[in-house]
Amino acid sequence: MSATAFEGTSEPAYGAPAPAEGRPLVEVRGLNVVFRKGRSLGAPRLVRAVNDVSFSIERGETLGLVGESGSGKSTTGRALLKLVPYTAGEVRVAGRDLSGLAGSELRRARRNMQMVFQDPYSSLDPSCTVAASIAEPLLVHERLAPREARARVTELLELVGLTGGHADRYPYEFSGGQRQRIAIARALALHPQFVVCDEAVSALDVSTQNQVINLLERLRAELHLSYLFIAHDLAVVRHISDRVAVMYLGRIVESGPTDRVYNRPAHPYTEALLSAIPDASPHRVKRERILLAGEPPDPANPPAGCPLQTRCRYVMDVCRQRMPEATPVHGGGEVACHLQTSGPNLSGAPLGGAATP
């Protein structure tokens, strides 16, 4: 099925004109997500899972979001779609502020933004056929007749490399890669502009990962999609992303164009993550393996100052006293690290020139 045919039946996501060209499709400003953890005794613990996060995603762009488990990546993605409530901040998709939307308004807004989850088996109803799972949003939002919905299901399956003959099977009859293709087809049913891929290939073997990544890249080009690609595999993120944002303890500590971040990291946390990427190239340059000491701090009781100061090999006194502010980086992007303004005063340069105290 051609991209033209697929897009021909789409309608404005919010019943309003599209925003002016040149404005990012997704705009996030000061996003905060706080969870209350109950206690049998005493006041509940407040866990700040996402802390003052800001970024944007251009039309047709993929932003990779990386970090350790528990850094707030998945919570950020879910908050963008209002699958979890955010306590402060602003999220705009296609120019529409989502913060005040609820009920039918939010349901209509979600036509334009969808999600592909990590485990394709648990995200598909095992008691429903593939046709029923993919047709559900078509029946709910577009009120198609069953025959029309079935024709669209076949088109969507073909779009992701399957056939109409797969429509009457159940999820357990497919491999993990095929199930993820089905989940992608369902996410595309309503012609969204923005898709959150939350660890969408981490449950797949390496060869299947490559197939799904190539599929996502082809769909982005054909359907003019924008992705937030959340992953812990930095090699995969480098392959698919135009820009990368690095999260630690609920904050974005560095962001910028993919090549700049991977080749010239400006934050110690980014440097440590990149040092763990295996390199099988015969021309590889031996890279120092950097191990961060200890475990990430408790998000309900973060340390004063820089959140990485308990594990950073470059830590200075100022790191324990105040939070670093974002600083522009040579080559594009920003970094929040006192090394850029104090100590070696790198002023946006990569960490290669910093001396370990």
UniProtKB/TrEMBL annotation:
<feature type="domain" description="ABC transporter">
    <location>
        <begin position="28"/>
        <end position="274"/>
    </location>
</feature>
<dbReference type="InterPro" id="IPR027417">
    <property type="entry name" value="P-loop_NTPase"/>
</dbReference>
<keyword id="KW-0547">Nucleotide-binding</keyword>
<dbReference type="InterPro" id="IPR003593">
    <property type="entry name" value="AAA+_ATPase"/>
</dbReference>
<dbReference type="Pfam" id="PF08352">
    <property type="entry name" value="oligo_HPY"/>
</dbReference>
<dbReference type="InterPro" id="IPR050319">
    <property type="entry name" value="ABC_transp_ATP-bind"/>
</dbReference>
<feature type="region of interest" description="Disordered">
    <location>
        <begin position="1"/>
        <end position="21"/>
    </location>
</feature>
<dbReference type="InterPro" id="IPR013563">
    <property type="entry name" value="Oligopep_ABC_C"/>
</dbReference>
<dbReference type="InterPro" id="IPR017871">
    <property type="entry name" value="ABC_transporter-like_CS"/>
</dbReference>
<dbReference type="GO" id="GO:0005524">
    <property type="term" value="F:ATP binding"/>
</dbReference>
<comment type="similarity">
    <text>Belongs to the ABC transporter superfamily.</text>
</comment>
<keyword id="KW-0067">ATP-binding</keyword>
<feature type="compositionally biased region" description="Low complexity">
    <location>
        <begin position="11"/>
        <end position="21"/>
    </location>
</feature>
<protein>
    <submittedName>
        <fullName>Dipeptide ABC transporter ATP-binding protein</fullName>
    </submittedName>
</protein>
<dbReference type="Pfam" id="PF00005">
    <property type="entry name" value="ABC_tran"/>
</dbReference>
<keyword id="KW-0813">Transport</keyword>
<dbReference type="InterPro" id="IPR003439">
    <property type="entry name" value="ABC_transporter-like_ATP-bd"/>
</dbReference>
